[in-house]
Specification:
This protein is mainly alpha-helical. Helix 18 packs antiparallel against helix 19. The protein is globular and about 90 Å long. The mean pLDDT is 96.
Length: 446
């Protein structure tokens, strides 16, 4: 079934939205460059990227020391945020974030940054590949085995945690195509995983032990057999409800409205032909709904990474850990197995966190006297001040209403600024306009 394809103008504004939805926003001039390639080539450049090549300085902490993501507090978050900022393969990194939310695993229970980083690498390797292969790998992943009690699931005491979430959250959707009997039988099929506890190291040597596996006959989705853990995965992926669930869930990360019936059916047809992620993504990124539909709120870490990319600033402070957490999203610590709640990205608490993020992102380019250096001269001109703020942040697309309000704010703040005030006020107003632009609805959404 042929799918709709966007045929409208593909200019810098559309390319900017694509770079935000399929990555972390454009660097300076990147939206215009991508637009010149046309829609099809622009999408292919994201879904079929060249090898990684980092842009910008290596990350460091507040004292200039390299990051230690495997053991230093919060450095795992900084390490991944740095990848988002410096990557030349934004869709790979964005899909790694999608899978982190899809298979939400938290270090709050895993208790090992090393194991969480290993899971992160697994998600990245499979970011654009086969969902079938990814699901097999995540089922046997040590961090997941700890998180959803896989190593506690043995034939004489089946644990239903992973079997339930495998169907409810990962492959079918709550209440779609499975029963409580299926949960119990899936738990039996998934028995057999174990590990060894070592003092000072925690759980190590994760392995499948046949003596812990229930090799008896099970009935899952009305089918009978001596199902193994691999069979458990295959039964879910080949279930009639899986493709509809997969398409709806993947679509939701890129478009805030439900796909129409034609789009849903067309994406399912593409997906069923090998369970490959890339071709489904390519169809979504070329779909009219992505360009003509409503805006989406940027997740906090996407917002942070995008600000830093636009400013050309790298990871140079550990503050991004608590700032991101204050806005509602700390990497490697989703709130529960369902992942983050996108409807909570902007509330009275998390928006305060975003204000602090913008303030910190802009602090190194604040205008005024700093450490004995004379303040930069800023024209006493509201339009020029707004234009300067836009240029600093990479010339993002904003609505006319937003531009008008920023100019009105600058004009009102400069009113009566004569004499010494004519020179002293403009830098202060320019700083305020930059902050207001960074926290405006236009930059919180894409």
């Amino acid at each position: 079934m042929p799918l709709p394809v966007y045929t409208g103008r593909f200019g810098p504004t559309q390319a900017e939205r694509l770079l935000w939805r399929a990555g972390f926003g454009p660097r300076r001039g990147e939206a215009r460059s991508l637009a010149s390639r046309g829609l099809d080539d622009a999408v292919r450049s994201l879904t079929r990227p060249p090898g990684e090549r980092w842009v910008g300085p290596p990350p460091h902490d507040d004292k200039g020391r390299p990051l230690a993501p495997a053991d230093a507090y919060g450095h795992d978050h900084l390490w991944w945020l740095d990848r988002m900022v410096r990557t030349r393969r934004p869709l790979v990194e964005r899909m790694t974030l999608v899978w982190h939310d899809w298979f939400a695993t938290s270090n709050a229970s895993v208790g090992s940054q090393k194991l969480m980083l290993a899971q992160n690498r697994l998600l990245r390797r499979n970011a654009l590949g086969s969902f079938d292969h990814l699901l097999v790998a995540i089922t046997a992943n040590p961090a997941m085995l700890i998180w959803l009690s896989g190593t506690d699931n043995r034939k004489d005491a089946p644990n239903e945690n992973y079997g339930r979430e495998l169907m409810e959250l990962f492959t079918l959707g709550e209440g779609h195509g499975y029963t409580e009997h299926d949960v119990r039988e899936q738990a039996r099929a998934l028995t057999g995983w174990t590990s060894t506890w070592k003092q000072g190291k925690g759980q190590v040597d994760f392995r499948f032990d046949p003596s812990r596996h229930d090799s008896g006959s099970k009935t899952v989705f009305g089918k009978r057999g001596t199902f193994s853990w691999r069979d458990s995965v295959a039964l879910c992926v080949h279930h009639p409800q899986h493709a509809p669930f997969f398409v709806r869930k993947l679509w939701s990360y890129f478009v805030p409205t439900l796909p129409d019936a034609r789009t849903q059916a067309g994406l399912e047809e593409i997906y069923r032909n090998g369970f490959e992620v890339r071709p489904v993504l390519e169809a979504i990124l070329r779909h009219p709904a992505l360009y003509n539909g409503p805006r989406m709120v940027k997740p906090p870490v996407v917002y942070v990474a995008g600000l830093l990319r636009a400013l050309g600033r790298g990871i140079d402070t550990t503050a991004w850990v608590w700032l991101s957490e204050g806005a509602g999203q700390r990497l490697f610590y989703p709130p529960n197995v369902s992942g983050w709640d996108d409807t909570r990205w902007l509330d009275t608490n998390t928006f305060r966190g975003r204000w602090s993020i913008a303030n910190t992102a802009l602090d190194k380019v604040t205008l005024g006297e700093r450490k004995g250096k004379k303040a930069s001269k800023v024209p006493n001109d509201p339009e020029a001040i707004v234009a300067g703020a836009l240029a600093l942040l990479g010339d993002p697309t904003i609505r006319r209403e937003t531009h008008r309000e920023l100019v009105a704010f600058a004009r009102g703040s400069l009113k009566g600024a004569t004499g010494w005030k004519a020179e002293a006020y403009p830098p202060l107003v320019a700083n305020a306009v930059r902050q207001l632009l960074a926290v405006s609805p236009d930059l919180q959404t894409c």
